## 1
Amino acid sequence: MNTCVIGLGYVGLPTAAVLSKSGHKVLGVDIKKNVVDQINAGSVHIFEPDLDEIVASSIADGTLRASMKIEEAENYVIVVPTPLKNYKPDVSSIDQAVYSLCPYLKKENLLILESTSPIGTTNALLDKIKSFRPDLFENDNPLFYLAYCPERVLPGNVCYELVNNDRIVGGVNKDSSEKAYQFYKTFVKGKIHITDSKTAEMTKLVENSFRDLNIAFANELSMICDQANIDTWELIQLANKHPRVQILNPGVGVGGHCIAVDPWFIIDKYPDRSNMIRSSRKVNCDKTDWVINKIIETAKEDDVIACMGLSYKQDIDDLRESPALKIFEELSDRLGENKVISCDPHLDMSNFNNSDYENVIKRASIIAYLVPHTKFKNRVIKDKLVLDFCGVLNDME
Ligand code: SAJ
């Protein structure tokens, strides 16, 4: 099968790579020339375990190729970003991708949208395509197949989850759902569940909003516990002994490009009904400011503060929407750059006053753990003030 994947980012490139290992001849398309050149040279522009090896081998055996230009294919998969602009979803990259592929689209082709989308986006594509290609419609019915299928992979575990997670497939009609089901069957080992496109779009938004809400509960608890002088971690551990309670871990806020963003897609469309979803966003953002203030209140004039971890979550190098990075930057602004250093073993040493663990612990007087990187675990620190905001020092072995 010839498959064209449009958008070679954190999800598109692994998808293209996994497809190329599952019997597809894949063309990956991206608007960035450096990304295309790098992939064609057999390397990758993002860090994701195992991805570099799969891409190198698929480029070498000719099952994967990258280009800035779309070509004719049987299947098209759109995996482009849909960022927020003033708290409103911006779907212009989807529109751009669809307009670019319209000239190549043929009867019986399958078009899949994977980008996180406001509900109704997939159905609305029918009218957009019709305005360019009325020949692909008969009595308003498309002669091609169109479905929405959200990606649900966890950064850091993408190559595994792409194959093993369950998938939701929502076609604009029954035949489209069936066609998309058959497409995912070629590489997915998890179950594939069929629904309509609107429900599939909402599923994605709800999954991430659900997680945001649950993290907000843990973060709110942590701030209440601080006031009540109760150890949050012990409290959560004890509450979780109840068979129907499963509280998540408090941290320094919620980062990444999904959980901090997707709830707004629902709030934007249903502002009067999204009270809990909106409050969760506020609590998780407030938690970051609370951490900043806590460190500032604690620090004395001569203190040097070590921000331990800068990425948006543990064991990755991804800085997108990272609350830890925001904390580092704001502390540097407010206390002075010479007062704030950082240690993130996953990042380049040349930025963010970043240095290796031993050096940072030696130089700092306050050690503030922001991200629970595995490399920070089980390390005893003596004669320093330690502020553990992410529970990395719990359960020392
Ligand atoms: N976090 C906490 N406490 C926790 C769990 C997470 O503070 O107990 C924080 C993390 O530190 C991080 C943020 O939440 O800052 C998000 O991290 P995450 O690991 O929960 O999720 P992401 O953003 O890396 O990936 C999510 C996943 N969605 C869900 O688990 C519902 C993933 O499956 C999605 O595919 C991805 O968003 C996406 O692309 O939408």
## 2
Amino acid sequence: MRAGLVLIDLQRDFLARSGLTPSADTLVANVTRLLAAFRASTLPVVHVRTLVNEDIDNRMPHWKRQNFWGCVDGTPGACAPAELEAIPGEPVLAKSFFSSFQNSELDAFLRPRVELLVVTGLYTHACVHTTILDAYQRGYEVWVASDGVASYDPLYAALTQDYLEARACRFMALAEIGRRLNLRGNKATVAQPPGESVHAGVRWQASSDTPTLTLHNPAQWSERLYTVEIGNEADVNHAFRLSSARQPKWAGEAIRFGVERLRAWADALRSRRTAIVLSLVREIGKPVRDAEAEFDYALGLLYAAVDRRRPDQSETLAEGVQVRHYPLGVVGLITPWNNPLAIPVGKIAPALANGNTVLWKPALPARSVTAQVLETLAEAGFPEDCVNVVLGDAGTGQAVVVHPDIAAISFTGSLAVGRAIGALCAVRGKILQAELGGNNGVVIGECHDLRQAAADLALMAFSFAGQRCTAPRRIIIPCPQYDGFLTHFLEQVGKLRLGAPTDPDTQVGPMVSRERRDDIMARIEGSLDQGGRILCGGRIPRRWRHGCWFEPTVIVPGDHQDAIVHEESFGPVVVIQRADDFKAAVTLCNGVQQGLVASLYSDDADQQRYFSNQAQAGILRINDDRRGIHPEAPFGGWKASGMGPPEHGRWDEAFYSRPQAVYWRQHSTPFHPPQPGCTAWKH
Ligand code: NAD
């Protein structure tokens, strides 16, 4: 079948959209590779671009409604980045609406030359979507480069992929396309099985032919740390087969040796404390004191799993009535970058303890922390394939979620991605636990020591540059306390020590990446456009320009409805909201879609009672200056901040195992229910 490449809307204005996944840099690098391979193979290439004519104003009606101008003909924003510029012989076709086939020249160019379209471009849920449907309707076979398309809306991107794959096209990684079409100049043309390097009994899946992403040191951006392989569907399938083959045997072993192995894992981790803490400092810029706290928390979670593990998980409720707990099978774990040790340990330990095996997709940063988790599991004697890791990005994570035989997904990450994963799990009837972003409100009540409250909050909000899901994001102050508290708070924020993450005195380190810092700056700019006022911060500190530092920023929004109030800013930003009185402050605290943590500072018993009865969050803190989380307490967001059962303590058992009620009567031939835990539930 003759193939041709279509590049849709790969223009600077579209690439500049915040929240693009994969990022604009990654997308352009990926499409550039594929483009080079098509050119080297002398296969047809066509560029389609949205062009707005200012004179006749041919914008789409919703752009007019939003007063949005983009891709205006003749402006730099309408052009492709240099790497993706057309060369002679490649048509550049204009359109003004979603589908590339709006321009009839596209069909005229493709029809005599091509039966198979390979589609790349922006955005997956919009122009890519409609172009694919139109191509399908015209009888073309369509392949979509899954790592060559991007969207800023993960929910609609995921649903779009699901919808299109069931009908009109196939999504596959660039490397796979290169292999299948035998493209020249593309190292992906060499067919290879997924590579794997074995970490003494626990495997690390990494394709030799998939793209890689280079990660930088957040404290010294010019320093390249390493590259990470972006695993694809084939890698996920391969890892699944290994995990699945191991699971039934491990289910039996977990009953006999689970506790012993978990203890040995804790010992192995402890023996590497210094190395792991240093990796956290270097790879995500976590200040060393915070990195130590994460390490200790991870161990606490592991010991909690040891303590909870009972050798026989069946229980008798009454004569002839038994409850047994079965493992789920292979569980998929998808974790974020900001706690790259504690969050995975807090999921892997109960998953294994309950007889499951694990397919883990960590976030891109902190690769060596991931490696050390695997190595310590192996040192602890966990058998090969109890835990398999596939490194990668959003596409890799999605391949884990949609794998038909992965029984359940435990995800921690942002609200937008959690919703996308929730939608995919819902249509597949897949079990999901999702711990999502917070937008945590703090109410300042009648508190005798406002200075102390301000000092606690400044540290909790800005340490680790505010990159904690539990960090206070909004401080809501009733009129009587407003001026007094704010003066103390700004004074305390001014005293915070910015510094190198390696320095034990540092309180505010760098953000994890330039991309994340740009995102925070765009949010602040957006707030200023809506009438917000910056009370302090708002800039890149001059002395720390070599890394990703951003000043602790306190902002008063123009209005309680502004985006900065309602969306989580995952960085060093605190929003101040003024309330008429205490009850109005609690209403504002609840007045966002998220509900992870809500806090109160007040000495007044009535206010404490009112708050604890009214606040809508999975975690409440009342005059609590400890930043820690108890490893046995439920950790889960209410409202949009979580789905499924919370994590930790006895709630883990509810997620990682499946109960079964067995009723039996003794007849003349005694019936012995089989030993629980030996068989996986096949989803
Ligand atoms: P993220 O949602 O961008 O990514 C989390 C993980 O999901 C990563 O491994 C990522 O590669 C993967 N992923 C991204 N898109 C995906 C998709 N479409 N399908 C499948 N997998 C996908 O989050 P992040 O930036 O890594 O972490 C920060 C976010 O995590 C913040 O919102 C923070 O509040 C939240 N978080 C929540 C908790 C909690 O327990 N509630 C804890 C830590 C962090």
